[in-house]
Design goal:
alpha+beta; two-stranded antiparallel ribbon; globular
Length: 271
């Protein structure tokens, strides 16, 4: 049961990708310096991207999952109704194993193998992975929108000659938080140099030793939305080290989607 739950939650973590920037070569390709941009202009891009959400979304995702205890490969069918619900069904060799639904205030899933179900809240994500996601955050990750962006919050540019980086905290604040183990999340948005779309997201909390890096390795323009195609996710917590690779296959944007989730009468609560 534990492995099914871990897999279900991890597939919700999806975002962006670029290698960390430094004054070096990547293979034989030299990094190119970027022109300086105003922080306000970069924040405006985040604001614009955060508002660009399709009404509905569907994708079948080939998923590889590896942590300190197991290694799995399976298919995940994800449906999103904007700001309302997300469903995900995990199958292996065409056989459904886990079905789930996430709403604004609940997380429910059924384990078809053990014929049991769980009804809980999204606080379970924090307990398991140290990352406090809500419905909107999960939707943002799946669609590569800026996770947790708040238009009224102050943001700061971390100047780097080879990349554009916007952070929720100043550089000196981050160092202070690292020294004093503050219980707060640091978000860093990395932009691609060409289109200024998001390429990588870093989430860090020094207090509970949580570090998440989400890399979009490729995207595809569908119905005027840049949808992820290949995503690598690394999650490090006190409990576990996790790596996930997601390959989006069949994709539907703004097509009619119906949410199906039922708990069979003969299922019992999972222990």
């Amino acid at each position: 049961m534990k492995q099914f739950f871990n897999t279900l939650i991890i597939l919700m973590c999806i975002c962006v990708g670029i290698t960390s920037c430094a004054k070096k070569m990547i293979g034989e390709i030299p990094l190119v310096k970027v022109e300086r941009k105003r922080t306000a202009d970069l924040v405006a891009i985040l604001d614009s991207l955060s508002k660009k959400k399709p009404k509905t979304f569907y994708s079948k995702i080939a998923t590889s999952f590896k942590d300190t205890n197991q290694e799995l490969s399976f298919k995940t069918s994800v449906r999103i109704i904007n700001d309302s619900a997300i469903t995900a069904m995990i199958t292996y060799a065409g056989i459904p194993l886990v079905n789930s639904i996430i709403t604004k205030d609940s997380l429910q899933f059924t384990n078809k193998k053990d014929k049991c179900y769980v009804k809980t809240t999204l606080k379970l994500l924090k307990q398991e992975f140290g990352v406090d996601f809500d419905l909107n955050n999960i939707q943002e990750l799946l669609l590569a929108n800026p996770l947790g962006f708040q238009p009224l919050q102050k943001y700061y540019q971390i100047h780097d000659p080879y990349s554009y980086i916007v952070s929720s905290h100043r550089k000196r604040e981050i160092k202070k938080m690292e020294r004093k183990n503050f219980d707060d999340f640091i978000l860093k948005y990395y932009f691609s140099n060409d289109s200024l779309g998001i390429k990588k997201l870093e989430i860090e909390n020094n207090k509970d030793s949580t570090f998440v890096v989400i890399n979009y390795k490729s995207k595809k323009l569908i119905e005027n939305y840049l949808i992820p195609q290949e995503v690598d996710i690394q999650i490090s917590t006190k409990k576990n080290n996790i790596f996930i690779r997601l390959n989006y296959e069949k994709i539907e944007v703004n097509q009619e989607q119906e949410i199906y989730f039922t708990i069979p009468e003969n299922y019992e609560s999972c222990n």
